[in-house]
Amino acid sequence: MKKKLALTSVAFLTAITLAGCSTGETVATTPAGDITKDELYDAMKASIGETVLQRLILIDVLNDKIGDNKLEAETEAELLTTIEQYGGEETFNYILSQSGFANKEEYQDVLYLNKLIEAAVRAETTFTDEEVEAYYEAYQPQINVQHILVADEATAVDLINQINEGADFAELAKANSTDTATAENGGETGLFGAGEMVAAFEEAAYSLEVGEVTQTPVATEYGYHIIKMIEKTEKGTLEEERENIETVMMDEKLADNDYLTSVMSTIVQAANVEIKDEDLAAAIDQFLPAKETSSSDATSEATTSEAASSEAKSATSESAN
């Protein structure tokens, strides 16, 4: 079974854009009084200001670093395709609202920034010959299997017995497998490589020889599997596999949040971004070196902590009396 992929927005990509310049102009009236643009701006700034500012800074910094690119056009094309896949803007906008997006423009900004980040990470990431060679040694080529998924172990054991007695694996998959994505195809998964399936399934599959069937049910979060190996691709030479290996290595880097943050930190720090508004000064702190605490600050904090501890003990003692 394929690993579950959770599509989550990075924290700095989920806020709506702040209103323009603040003024005293009234935006709403209530029995208790007027709400001005100043009040609206201040409230939005306090709740999502750092989030939005971070997004805008990253887009500017990455645009400057990457230079001319086709990512905006790619983003727009992908947005239109996605809207079409959902059957039109009405359904698409509903899905966006349920996912925390204010509108399609915000979603498009998020999509564009994700593409910028990926492009920047690819440009900043290289692999040494030693790294590629080490990966090659552990690299396993793609395989293709059939599988039958059922809800309980007893049923799986019974199906294994039927297969051992000569029953056709594909027909049993069509009749019994609860994996609707593969059942109609006789349980065939198609080619997949290491890291693409849940661990227990993958480990059992790779242990088989062509034509061999697992003799005990393989338990995963989805249920119980019977697996049959039908194809093993040959592992080529290092040079033959290099492109595939580097693609897999890059995909792993792009899926590593710590690595992404590290690359973005290097880029943001090199850009020497200066935030003028003190209220929003922490917008890019996660990409900056941790602020060191001075010895005087540390002494002050320790003294304050001791005083607080003493007060707490005193209060506890008085309460007991």
UniProtKB/TrEMBL annotation:
- Tell me how this protein sits in the membrane: Lipid-anchor
Q: Where does this polypeptide localize? A: Cell membrane
**Gene3D superfamilies given for it?**
3.10.50.40
Q: Where is the composition biased (Low complexity)?
A: 290-321
List this protein's GO terms for biological process: protein folding
Q: What class of enzyme is it?
A: isomerase
Pfam families hit by this protein: Rotamase_3
- In this chain, the stretch annotated as Disordered covers 289-321
Question: Per its record, how is this protein called by name?
Answer: Foldase protein PrsA
**Which organism is this entry from?**
Trichococcus patagoniensis
